[in-house]
Amino acid sequence: MQPTAQVIDEEYRKTQAQASSEEQFKQLLQGAGLTPETLREEITRNATRQAYIGKFISDHAKELSVSEAEMKAFYDANNKKGQPLWHREMVRGRQILRELPPNATEQQKKVERAKIEEAYAKLKAGADFANVAREYSVDATAPNGGDLGFVPRGAPIHPRLEEVIFSLKPGQFSEIVETPIGYHIIKSEEYKPEGAGEFDRVKAGIADQLMQ
Length: 212
Hints:
Number of helices: 8
Strand content: 15-25%
Low-confidence stretches: none
Shape: globular
Order of helices and strands: HHHHEEHHEHEEEH
Helix content: 40-55%
Number of domains: 3
CATH topology of the largest domain: Chitinase A, domain 3
Largest sheet: 4 strands, antiparallel
CATH class of the largest domain: Alpha Beta
């Protein structure tokens, strides 16, 4: 039941993609008392545990059925503010980032600014945001087209980026935004107001939780 190296690498990249830069990722690891090596160990333990649970559920499927009524009862009890199924206001976003090193020189800033302006010009000309992100972005989300996933209010990102991403309508992308991290272009893909997830969208997860 040991996960493959490919599975571990993929989960590691997903975790890494939650940070807006390599430096922030290191800070988040440090804050959690982890190193890249111990994070991989934790991912391995979790994947092994889930594989065992999955096999147990498969072997005992008939004994572990969950009714629609049981799922609905759990949903009704946990979809209020402060409960597990409640979520903050959030936006699914993408970004293109040209990162600046600490104490960047004016020449380095000029080079990265030129690159982000190239990317912005392509977007204004109608190029697909994900494709431009793969070509120009330098952060961990670049291979996935700059996909940031859903970013909730109060997420550990630079305040200026939070301000920008929540000001955009779905489908819109920002102008070039400068932060201490570098130069960004942000796109809003989908907006979700604060509230509970719709029952039909979360019931599969509820069934898994009740079975476990």
